[in-house]
Amino acid sequence: MENWEDLIKKIIEFMGFKDYRTEIKQDQKRGSIFIYDSPTLVKENLPALVDSLNHFAQMIARKNNQPPVFFDINNYRQERESLIAELARAAAKKVLLTKEKVSLPAMNSYERRLVHVELSVHPEVTTESIGIGKERYVVVKPLSEAAGNEEQRTDGAKQEL
């Protein structure tokens, strides 16, 4: 899409918002939207607004054979990413203290990926996604437990018991 900013402005205005600001960084494929009117309505519906707008933008990008641009509204995604990273670090700390695995709440694939990336550099824990669909969640385990539950297969791959 050549002009994401014009399209997003039209969408926001069709939604009935008049007082807003947009910042789109084409090179980073990211955009920020700040909606100032109807703060209670926006706050109560922020997760749905962000998800819906991004779904809509992805559909438009796909239809036009363009890479998608991801949008954040009122810094919701940024704050959510920070919260998930903090949750992942807290889970790792708990795993190290208790030596037991910790299950995090169900998350979407993007949020689970944030947990995996955040803890991928942690030398003493490992992560695994478990479950199906919207009930899929991340389990943080001590590295010693994960290594103890793996068995070497004849083809050289590791298989968890």
CATH first level of the largest domain: which class? Alpha Beta
What does the average pLDDT come to? Answer: 88
Work out the helicity level: 40-55%
Radius of gyration (CA) equals 20 Å
CATH superfamily of the largest domain: R3H-like domain
What is the architecture of the largest domain at the second tier of CATH? Answer: 2-Layer Sandwich
Bulk shape: elongated
What does this structure look like?
With 161 residues, this protein is of the alpha+beta class. The chain has two domains: 71 residues; 83 residues, Ribosomal Protein S8, Chain: A, domain 1. The chain contains five helices and eight strands. It has a three-stranded mixed beta sheet. The protein starts with a helix and ends with a strand.
What are the key terms here?
single chain, 161 residues, Ribosomal Protein S8, Chain: A, domain 1, 2 domains, three-stranded mixed β-sheet, three-stranded antiparallel β-sheet, 8 strands
Topology readout:
Layout: H1 4-14, E1 20-25, E2 30-35, H2 39-63, E3 70-73, H3 76-98, E4 102-103, H4 109-120, E5 125-130, E6 137-142, H5 143-148, E7 150-152, E8 158-160
Parallel strand pairs: 2-3
Antiparallel strand pairs: 1-2, 4-6, 5-6, 7-8
